[in-house]
Write a structure and sequence with these properties.
2 domains; Growth Hormone, Chain: A; globular; 18 helices; mainly alpha
Length: 390
């Protein structure tokens, strides 16, 4: 394979990360619209969001099997098309049951796309010869910025929410279809895998049936859960918070996720250099405390601009915590990386995709600011626990 093919694949993969962020973030400003149309409270909305997380988590292990058999390129195309199809449908249903089914399918597409694009990114990075994963995830955050602002901007221009969602869905289809031919085929992925230095023996060697329950895996996984929960809380609840607690109109309710995404995108694009210069403890402890302070600031001070500043601080602090944890997952001495990484990834994404349902229950019994503050408390706990670790 020549260098031009690798460069084209790298550009195409970045575009797919952008698409994934765009599709997921477009859901953020829809949440208050869906809540109002269905006439449900915070607890019911939280349970409804569980369908989105359930769809994503249920497809993640299946996607790994399908990707190994058919290649990540096919999965990326299929998942992106389903995501684009479901996006406008989320604004169509007025039945809670149908909305739950739609969210489950939407979540399944998100989970499949997430696994496929990360798998493809690893292959591109291995062929590229240098670390580019933080930059890839930075493009995901850029997509999050465009999605959270784009839908509201189109609505502000006079488009009906449904037509705005259709416009974004068509953009997703155009980007993915134009980049499809530049992605690696299954034969190329297998060729790269066969050239890797890691041997198959590490994967198939008997390592114990329940190593995924090892304390080191669970501890890192739990901290990943808290970090991902903070990101999920902003995706699913920031628009509702700004609309109901800060009086922001619906067209601008996505500003919270946009502010968060802008900060996170910037820090992730700089993340490779920061992680190289600073040690893991400074990234996790310092980042966790900044992120927690940001969330506390957003929910305690009754001012829209201060809340947006809090979301920015959350994005700055949380951006590079998870990359540190994923790196650590591959270096656990007691558990092989082939077991630790999938286990920790699944636990982490459970926080992002299913955790917001927990916040909905807390919001119903107490208030939404308290629920978001609980996520900030978990981030502070992560910083303290990681600081005290050997």
């Amino acid at each position: 394979m020549n260098s031009n093919s690798v460069k084209r694949a790298a550009v195409a993969t970045r575009a797919i990360f952008l698409v994934c962020g765009l599709g997921i973030a477009s859901w953020a400003p829809m949440v208050p619209l869906v809540k109002e149309r269905l006439g449900i409270n915070d607890a019911s909305l939280g349970l409804l969001l569980l369908f989105l997380g359930g769809g994503a988590i249920s497809m993640m292990p299946i996607s790994g099997i399908l990707g190994h058999k058919y290649g990540s390129r096919i999965l990326i195309l299929a998942a992106s098309l389903v995501l684009a199809l479901m996006l406008p449908l989320l604004l169509l249903f007025s039945s809670v049951l149908l909305m739950g089914v739609a969210l489950f399918i939407f979540g399944a597409a998100v989970g499949t796309l997430d696994v496929a694009m990360n798998s493809h990114a690893v292959q591109v990075q291995n062929k590229h010869g240098k670390h580019i994963m933080s930059a890839m995830h930075g493009l995901f955050s850029v997509g999050g910025l465009l999605g959270s602002l784009g839908l509201g901007f189109l609505i502000k221009l006079g488009l009906q929410p449904m037509y705005a969602a259709v416009s974004i869905a068509l953009l997703i289809v155009v980007i993915v279809c134009s980049m499809y031919s530049s992605l690696f085929t299954l034969s190329v992925e297998k060729e790269i895998a066969n050239n890797e230095q890691e041997t198959e023996e590490l994967i198939v060697k008997p390592v114990g049936k329940f190593l995924w329950l090892h304390a080191s895996v669970l501890s890192v996984g739990a901290m990943c859960f808290a970090a991902f929960l903070a990101e999920g809380s902003i995706l699913d609840w920031s628009a509702v918070f700004l609309k109901e607690n800060r009086g922001v109109e619906e067209a601008f309710a996505g500003m919270g996720y946009a502010a968060f995404s802008l900060a996170m995108a910037t820090m992730r694009l700089l993340g490779d250099g920061l992680i190289h210069r600073l040690n893991a403890k400074k990234i996790v402890v310092g980042g966790g405390l900044i992120a927690a302070f940001g969330l506390f600031l957003a929910v305690i001070v009754p001012n829209t601009l201060v809340s947006l500043l809090g979301f920015v601080l959350l994005g700055i602090g949380a951006a590079n915590i998870v990359p540190v944890f994923f790196t650590e997952a591959g270096k656990l001495k007691q558990v092989p990386a082939a077991i630790a990484i999938p286990a920790i990834t699944t636990i982490g994404y459970a926080g992002q995709l299913a955790g917001p349902a927990l916040l909905g229950v807390i919001a119903h019994h107490f208030s939404l600011p308290i629920a978001l503050g609980f996520s900030g408390f978990l981030l502070m706990l992560v910083a303290i626990v990681y600081w005290r670790r050997r």
